[in-house]
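User: Please fill in residues for this 247-position structure.
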């Protein structure tokens, strides 16, 4: 059992973990911006924003919008749920499997019917894909890097700076600013792509996910259950200030 558990952590090597995290953050920002513009200001990955919209809709009695936003939040949560179960099931193949499924789902959304305003069926596969993305770089304690939202990254960077001044910096705080920048640049790109291609712009993050899946597959075939693919020494995404750094 112990040997099986060792295959379920995300990459221990920063040379894999950091580039994948930045690429996935940019992908999420891109898809979120395209979806926000395409689907009447419905967030694809920013569930804090959708929750605020849900509360406002309830207070105004806009029940159609309540259903629309509420179903999106529920599906995103289900994506994180099923993604975590899949990651546990496939072990160190998690990168290739989850990224491959994400690429497929982003393409499937383009072929789905638009559906009624209350149930945006055409958006659901994209939301599901982005929910699953949160399981790609999740550690064995259930913690993950903030790949589809920025609040956690901004907070961790701010508290990390404070801890740096206090003399005990967290070994993971420095990546938070690049994650925010990657997601922001992805959102800018998504807005520009939507202006050029409309809903077909989702093919761009789909292609990015597919490329990452192929890279992950090759790495897994070559390196197996090595530190470039998995490992038990992966630093926790929100490591405590006193945690030892992991190279």
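Assistant: Residues filled in for all 247 positions:
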């Amino acid at each position: 059992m112990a040997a099986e558990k060792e295959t379920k952590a995300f990459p221990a090597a920063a040379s894999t973990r950091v580039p994948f995290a930045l690429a996935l953050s940019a992908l999420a920002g891109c898809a979120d911006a395209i979806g926000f513009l395409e689907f009447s200001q419905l967030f694809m990955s920013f569930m804090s924003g959708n929750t605020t919209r849900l509360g406002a809709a309830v207070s105004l009695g806009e029940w159609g919008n309540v259903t629309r936003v509420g179903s999106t939040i529920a599906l995103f949560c289900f994506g994180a749920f099923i993604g975590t179960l899949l990651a546990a099931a496939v072990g160190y193949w998690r990168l290739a499997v989850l990224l491959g499924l994400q690429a497929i789902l982003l393409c499937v959304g383009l072929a789905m019917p638009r559906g009624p305003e209350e149930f945006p069926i055409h958006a659901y596969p994209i939301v599901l894909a982005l929910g699953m993305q949160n399981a790609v770089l999740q550690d064995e304690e259930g913690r993950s890097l903030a790949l589809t939202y920025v609040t956690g990254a901004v907070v961790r960077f701010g508290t990390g700076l404070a801890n740096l001044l206090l003399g005990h910096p967290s070994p993971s705080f420095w990546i938070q600013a690049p994650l925010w920048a990657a997601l922001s640049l992805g959102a800018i790109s998504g807005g520009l792509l939507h202006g050029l291609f409309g809903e077909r712009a989702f093919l761009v993050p789909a292609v990015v996910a597919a490329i990452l899946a192929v890279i992950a597959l090759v790495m897994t075939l070559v390196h197996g259950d090595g530190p470039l693919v998995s490992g038990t020494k992966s630093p926790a995404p929100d490591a405590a200030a006193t945690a030892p750094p992991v190279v």
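For context: Residues 79 and 132 are 4 Å apart (CA to CA).
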